[in-house]
Structure formats: C-alpha cells, structure tokens
Amino acid sequence: MHPFSYTRASDTREALDAGRHGGRYIAGGTTLVDLMRETVERPETLVDISGLPLREVRATQGGGLRIGALVTMAETAAHPKVRALYPVISESLELSASAQLRNMATIGGNIMQRTRCTYFRDVTADCNKREPGSGCAALKGHNRTHAILGTSDACVATHPSDVAVAFAALEATVHLLGPDGERRLRFADFLLRPGSTPNREQAVRQGELITAVEIPALPRPLRSGYLKVRDRQSYEFALTSAAVALHIRGGVIREAKVAAGGVGTVPWKLPAVERHLVGERPSAALWTAAADKAADGARPLQHNRFKPELLKRTVERQLRVVGGTK
Ligand code: SF4
C-alpha cells in the first residue's frame, strides 16, 4: 500500500475544502481500501466523511424517497419506507455482497464502486480503465463475466452494483454538492459508458460529494422486485439480473420500469421491453414477447455467448414474478 494522509471532516464545508484540494472521500471503505491494498488506487489524501449528516431516509414532498449517501446498504434494505414503497431496492441490496459488507458500505459508495474485472485488479495486466492506453486484457482473455451491452474497443467490464440496477430502473436522481454548489444528475447520466475513456466511470467533478439518491414518486399500486442470477447463491456478482417495477390498474399495465444488471458496462435500462408492456394486459405470452427484446444490440464475447439468452430468461421470469401469470 502506498503512503497516504488521512483527515476526518467534521462538517460538509471541511469535506468540500479537502475534496477541492484533491482529497478522496471515504466512508465505509469497502471498495477503496481493497483497491489501495492492491495498489490499484493510490490516493495521497483520504477524507473521511462518515461523520457528515447524510444518514437519513425520508419521504420527499412529491411522494418519492430520498436516501442519504451515508445510509448503509443494510439500513436502506431494512428501512420500512423502502420495503413498503420500493421492494426492488431492498431485494437488490439483500442479494449483494455479505452481511458484514452491507453493514459497512454506504449507498453513495455503492454507486461509486469500481468494476470487479479481474484484470483491473491485477496490476500486472493491461487495463485501459486502470492505466489509460495500456490495452484491455479481457478482450482476448477470460471474459465470461464481462459485458455484452454498452461495450467499446477499450473496455468491456460490467458495472458491479445491484442497487444501481434498481436505481436505473426507477429513474433515480443523484444529488451532488461541490465547490460550485448543488447539482442533480439523472441516474442514466451519472454512470458513464466506457467509450474511449473507461477510466472515467462517473460524471462526478473534482471535489463533488454525493449527498443523496432520490427515487421519484411513481403511481400506486406499484409492484416491484429484483432477480439476480449468479454462479453461487451468496457473495457473488450477477451474471444477469433484472429489476422490474409495474403499475397495473384495471388489469392493464399503465407503467413499466425495467433494467438489467451483469450485462452492461452500466446498469442497462430496457426501454424496448418497457414499451412493449405498457397498455397491455399481463399474460405469460406478454412476458415472453417483452423479454425477447432485452438483449437487443448485445455483442457477446468469446466466453459469454450464453448471456443474451440468459438475460431474456431472467427478465421474463422477473416480469412473471412481479406481474403475475395468467
Ligand atoms: Fe480493464 Fe475494462 Fe479491459 Fe477489464 S474490461 S481489463 S477493466 S479495460
């Protein structure tokens, strides 16, 4: 591990000041400390923000939900309002990581976490994300777990977060605070596809702090849930996953929010699937036809040609679970 200095921010102003001078924010530390141990990350200054007043889940005036950036994964998953209004968020969190990690890791840190591509974490391997311009060892290497959507010639790594898939499906907003004041970003604009600059993963500016993730109000009743398909049932990342939320009234689907994980370089929203569902009556045939569009545009790699079909089946099954089968 490279030497670094550590400072603990006692208030937001102090944190922003340290961030503006190049300090890296740390709260639960469940990703950053691992990467520092492996010398993938080498920050000179860590700014501990765990004492800032950003640890609250509350309803917004419009009927949505605001989750403070420092609320832990476990606290978010267990929160009565989250469980009641957006089970898809609770389920995605409970299927993530381990109980110990969920007790430490925060929502802000979760959406800032870096890829689990093994070549990224191996400092002897070529990796454009870690070392821009060095190449991508995964393209010709072992790429079974890598992305099939949103990839580029520079990087094919998946985004590892589960709850980010739920946030993408629900069209959340990320609240940021920086030297120039407050800013809001649509979740779809917050995480960046790799393009030619895979080293840039989030649209966060130097010194900006995530303060909250806001979930918009959605029409009620809203059924939602998360399905994660992985090689083992615990402490494993998704091969494919599906976050689904449906507003069904009078026997007709009035709104559909669907996104996939484990397949994209960012959580992958599925607008073609959503469009196919809206205005229709739930049925087994509808779930199959809608899910058939889930892998549109997929570009599988040598070892993950199974993913498009697995993705369709994952989406179909979760539509059936959330929407019911007739
Ligand atoms: Fe690095 Fe991305 Fe290639 Fe993995 S897929 S080796 S993270 S450039």
Automatic annotation (TrEMBL):
Domain of life of the native organism: Bacteria
The FAD-binding PCMH-type domain is annotated at 1-220
Q: Which SUPFAM superfamilies match?
A: CO dehydrogenase flavoprotein C-terminal domain-like, FAD-binding/transporter-associated domain-like
The UniProt transmembrane annotation reads none
Query: By its UniProt entry, which Pfam families does this protein fall under?
Result: CO_deh_flav_C, FAD_binding_5
> Which UniProt keyword terms apply here?
Oxidoreductase
Official protein name in the record = Xanthine dehydrogenase family protein subunit M
Name the source organism: Streptomyces muensis
